[in-house]
């Protein structure tokens, strides 16, 4: 960086008040810092990119990249969150049908049986690891009853329940 100061206040379109408002409304701290970087340049409290970057904890190259991004895309482009998430293979209605299958099943199904059912019903292929991750995401797990002791006296337990004062 040459260290030569530009006329940043004239290059930045937004007013200081708009930048302060945008800074307050940012959810992500990184983007709040980006708006603060631009605001420092607009206000004139920092006369170079390096100085404004150092105030928010950026190195020289990061400050250059941030300023280039502002020049090319504007403030709206700087503040777009790049990750929007991924859509799952199954739609909401298909997941509802899958949950219905578990509700109606009389015996526990294996993950392979469920993968085959999904393939036949919806035409969507899952590997075993994918089925496992799908179950984790949907919070589905095999429910098993508590084991009972083989020496348990069933008749004595029923008599105790009937005569107990609790």
What does this structure look like?
With 166 residues, the protein is an all-alpha fold. It has 2 domains: 71 residues, no CATH class; 47 residues, no CATH class. It contains 9 helices and no strands. Helix 2 packs antiparallel against helix 3, helix 3 runs antiparallel to helix 4 and helix 3 packs across helix 5.
List keywords for this structure.
mainly alpha, elongated, 166 residues
Please estimate the helix content.
55-70%
How many helices does DSSP assign? 9
Strand content: under 5%
Q: How many distinct beta strands?
A: 0
Mean pLDDT: 87
Uncertain segments: none
| Quaternary structure classification | single chain
Gap from first CA to last CA? 81 Å
Q: Give the domain tally.
A: 2
**Rg estimate, integer Å:** 30 Å
> Which outline best applies?
elongated
Structural category is mainly alpha
Order of helices and strands: HHHHHHHHH
What can be said about the biggest beta sheet?
none
Concise structural overview:
The protein has about 170 residues and is an all-alpha fold. The chain is built from nine helices and no strands.
Could you give the topology of this structure?
Layout: H1 8-11, H2 16-25, H3 29-43, H4 49-56, H5 60-78, H6 92-104, H7 111-122, H8 128-138, H9 154-163
């Amino acid at each position: 960086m040459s260290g030569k100061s530009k006329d940043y206040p004239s290059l930045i379109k937004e007013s200081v008040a708009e930048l302060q408002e945008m800074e307050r409304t940012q959810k992500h701290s990184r983007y709040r810092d980006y708006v603060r970087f631009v605001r420092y340049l607009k206000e004139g409290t920092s006369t170079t990119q390096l100085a404004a970057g150092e105030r928010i904890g950026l190195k020289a190259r990061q400050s250059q990249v941030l300023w280039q991004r502002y020049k090319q895309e504007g403030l709206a482009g700087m503040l777009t969150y790049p990750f929007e998430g991924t859509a799952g293979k199954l739609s909401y209605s298909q997941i509802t049908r899958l949950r219905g299958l578990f509700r109606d099943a009389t015996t526990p199904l294996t993950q392979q049986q469920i993968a085959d059912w999904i393939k036949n019903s919806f035409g969507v292929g899952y590997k075993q690891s994918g089925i496992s991750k799908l179950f984790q995401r949907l919070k589905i797990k095999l429910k098993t009853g508590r084991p009972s002791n083989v020496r348990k006296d069933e008749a004595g337990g029923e008599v105790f329940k009937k005569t107990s004062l609790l």
